[in-house]
Amino acid sequence: xxxxxxxxxxxxxxxxxxxxxxxxxxxxxxxxxxxxxxxxxxxxxxxxxxxxxxxxxxxxxxxxxxxxxxxxxxxxxxxxxxxxxxxxxxxxxxxxxxxxxxxxxxxxxxxxxxxxxxxxxxxxxxxxxxxxxxxxxxxxxxxxxxxxxxxxxxxxxxxxxxxxxxxxxxxxxxxxxxxxxxxxxxxxxxxxxxxxxxxxxxxxxxxxxxxxxxxxxxxxxxxxxxxxxxxxxxxxxxxxxxxxxxxxxxxxxxxxxxxxxxxxxxxxxxxxxxxxxxxxxxxxxxxxxxxxxxxxxxxxxxxxx
Length: 305
What we know:
Blueprint: E1 5-11, H1 15-26, E2 34-40, E3 59-65, H2 71-81, E4 86-89, E5 94-96, H3 100-111, E6 115-117, E7 121-124, E8 129-132, H4 141-146, E9 156-159, H5 160-165, H6 177-187, E10 192-194, E11 200-204, H7 211-228, H8 230-234, H9 238-258, H10 262-276, H11 279-288, H12 292-304
Parallel strand pairs: 1-2, 1-4, 2-3, 6-10, 7-11
Antiparallel strand pairs: 4-9, 5-11, 6-9, 7-8
Domain Glycosyltransferase 2-like: 6-131
GO molecular function, one term: transferase activity
Pfam families: Glycos_transf_2
C-alpha cells in the first residue's frame, strides 16, 4: 500500500509531550510519508536532533513561527507544506495508537471519502480513569451545526486538497477551530467515514486553572461561529434548535466540571434537562455534585447496560 499521508503537529512549549507524540508515530505499523512539526513560538526551539527519527524512512520538516500565532495558523502552515494526499492531525499532547495510520489510510483507499474520523481514549490523569468517546455515525452539516460530532483534530484525517479548497482552519477563532473546520467540510459536501476503533489517546488534567482562559475562548468562539452561520442556525427546526441548545449547555457544564466547579456544572446539566427533558441529563446534574470522577463512572456504567 502506497504511504501517502503526512502527519501535521502544531506545538507550543510542550517539548516533553511532543517527544511522546513523535514516539507514538514511530511505533506505527505503517509509517507516514512525512512528519511536519510547526513550532509555534516555543521558548525552546524544536530541533530535529531531539527526536530519533529514521531519516531514510520518514521525512521530518520543522517549520517555525517566531511568535505564537495559534493552532489554526500553525496547522495551515503544515497543510500548505505537506506533500501527502492525506493529512493526519496530531496535537502535541496526544498520542496515536499503533494501528492509527494503517487503518486510516486503508479506509481512505477503500471508501474514497474525504474525511476519516474515529473514537479516542480520554485519560483523566488525576482521577486515574479513562473513557472512550463515541462520535456520531453518518455525519451531516446539520449534525455539525448542532454540535461537534467528530471530536478534536487528532481524531480526524482529511484529504489535503479538500482542506486547501476550503482555506484551512479559521485563524480568527481563539478556540473550536477544529469544530468549525468540520462544519465547513460538511457544508461543502465532504464525505465522512467513521472507524469504530479508538486510534488516539489524549490526556485531560482537571483543576481550578482549567476554566478561566478556556471558557473565555470557548464563549468567544461560539459567538463568532454562530454569527458566521446565523442563517443556517435560523433555518433549523425547533427540535434541532433545542438539541443545539442542549449540546451547548452540556459542553459548558463539562468545562465547568473539569475546573472543579461542581455546582455550576450541575446547574448547567439541569438547564440542559429543562430544554430536552432527557433523564440522562438529570442524572448528570446529580452526579456532578460528586465531581468528574462520579460522572465518568456513571457514563461508563451506562455504556455497559
